[in-house]
Amino acid sequence: MKKIITYVFLWFSVCAYSQETLNAMFYNVFKFPTSLPQNRELILRDILDEYQPDLFMICELVNENGADLILNTSLQNQTDTFARAVFIPDLTNPSDALQTMVFYNTRKLTLVNQQTLPTVYRDINHYSFELNVEANDPIYLEVFVAHLKSSTGPANRQMRFDMVEQVTQELQNLTQPDTYVLFSGDFNFYNSSEIGYQQILNPANAIVMIDPINAPGSWQDNASFSYLHTQSTRFSNSGFGGGANAGASGGLDDRFDFIMMSENFTNSTRFSYVNGSYQAYGNNGNCLNQSVNDVGCTGIFSQTLRDNLYNMSDHLPVVMQFQINEPLAVKSFETNPLMWFESSNISNKEVVVGVDVSNINAKNNQLLVYNSLGQLVKTVGINDRQSVVISTENLSSGLYFIKMNQNDGVLKFIKK
Fold this sequence. Notes:
The chain is α+β, with helices and mostly antiparallel strands. Helix content is 17%, strand content 30%. The radius of gyration is 22 Å and the shape is globular.
């Protein structure tokens, strides 16, 4: 009897805590949702259903409608609930509307802040997460998503370097102990000697970054790196519209897409990189200068998946896995919103926000107001009030966002 009781106790102990993985994916979704074919949110849904990312980072998002299509349609079959960051139009280059975005599994991650880093060419967005672990010692994950300047030549290489430098300078401001960092994007690097690539890996950076795949060399049109190539998924862009809207052609021969990580992922006992999990998703390693769905490019990735990738974008996604070595906190499901507008969301004096105070706790007792750059401009205490008045008189005209520390909901208002 004693042995049975011991066995049952051990069984419950094992079941109470199983290690979790965090699946990350970066994807250049190519002028989404406006480029052909139509209804690409359904194609993307099938791709995401197969990989099931917990952190989905993208670039070439055209508008906020595209972000909502991904959240509400492409991610609709995921087991857990997803949320997204606030959409902020590109401020560096308004004529080039392409923007970045993150979507995330709310059971595993909480978005606590976001900011925009203006650069010489287009914005880079910085998203600050906390992992939803039970421990009182938080795990911080800082995520940068970029789309660097394309094309060859010294001027374009310099512009890519200047954009990267905005991120490496921002690393100096990440002062939380043991902060983990991901820097992902369409970097448009042709080889590992590029000054922008070397700047990311500079050991003098405030937080040391590494390339998880550690494959230095000249990647372009090099059969030795066929397994890493992410563009172009199409030998011909015929059938995808005309001109720049049709995307790149020529087949897979460039490693343009990356997820770089902070070095502490390799030696952490709390949050660690799963060795060998970094992949150019859908690339079977035998498709140099061919379409990704060529019938001769067989391997671990199925024909169906490769057909979807071919139709979705002229880039392949990059994926990698991380292991969370601590139990996650159990989050209760909210049936009602925590906050809502009790006034118009267009005002030149004040807005009034209703709050469900029964679900407010010590860590979630403030309303945070951000401007369109993602900068925190005002903090207003809730203090058990069911209606909170936020003065807008000292704010400049423009779009603003309200959120709470530990909640994924966002309210938008306009200061006239």
